Automatic annotation (TrEMBL):
<dbReference type="InterPro" id="IPR016923">
    <property type="entry name" value="UCP029509"/>
</dbReference>
<dbReference type="Pfam" id="PF09990">
    <property type="entry name" value="DUF2231"/>
</dbReference>
<protein>
    <recommendedName>
        <fullName>DUF2231 domain-containing protein</fullName>
    </recommendedName>
</protein>
<keyword id="KW-0812">Transmembrane</keyword>
<feature type="transmembrane region" description="Helical">
    <location>
        <begin position="49"/>
        <end position="70"/>
    </location>
</feature>
<dbReference type="InterPro" id="IPR019251">
    <property type="entry name" value="DUF2231_TM"/>
</dbReference>
<feature type="transmembrane region" description="Helical">
    <location>
        <begin position="82"/>
        <end position="101"/>
    </location>
</feature>
<feature type="domain" description="DUF2231">
    <location>
        <begin position="15"/>
        <end position="133"/>
    </location>
</feature>
<keyword id="KW-0472">Membrane</keyword>
<keyword id="KW-1133">Transmembrane helix</keyword>
<feature type="transmembrane region" description="Helical">
    <location>
        <begin position="107"/>
        <end position="133"/>
    </location>
</feature>
Length: 142
């Protein structure tokens, strides 16, 4: 009896890609926590903190998205987890951009849509990071 196995190539993000990807979570989560503090205290500075944290999260997420696109282009199989990772990261960046535009409004006009968007973007950032930092398979079974 002969057993043949297909080699499974695991490709994890490089150190810079992983750092950028992992940096999105605390920045977007900090924006969410600042929105919660603003919702409870009515201090405008919390909204300013949230806007800056979201801008930083967009920068990190955008660069991680660029790395994800390059990895997707270089992958032998264009589907599977690598594609899901890229799409979740793209959705995170796009909703984060909408959230940044929402936070550009004046004072209380940010609420409640800014808070809801911050919750969604933070959850998507956590999901994208989870998918991206687990072993992505680029060969064999996906």
């Amino acid at each position: 009896m002969t057993v043949t196995t297909q080699p499974v190539y695991r490709c994890t993000p490089g150190p810079l890609h992983a750092t950028l990807l992992a940096g999105t979570v605390p920045l977007f989560l900090g924006g969410l926590l600042s929105d919660i503090a603003y919702y409870q205290s009515y201090q405008i500075q919390w909204s300013n903190f949230a806007a800056w944290l979201i801008a930083g999260g967009l920068l990190f997420c955008g660069l991680a998205l660029l790395f994800g696109l390059l990895n997707l282009i270089r992958a032998e199989h264009k589907g599977g987890r690598a594609l899901v990772y890229f799409l979740v990261l793209l959705a995170t960046w796009l909703l984060g951009l909408v959230n940044a535009f929402e936070h550009a409004k004046d004072a209380w006009a940010v609420m409640p849509s800014g808070l809801v968007l911050s919750v969604i973007v933070s959850a998507l950032a956590c999901i994208a990071t989870w998918i991206g930092l687990t072993n992505l398979r680029s060969g064999g079974a996906q």
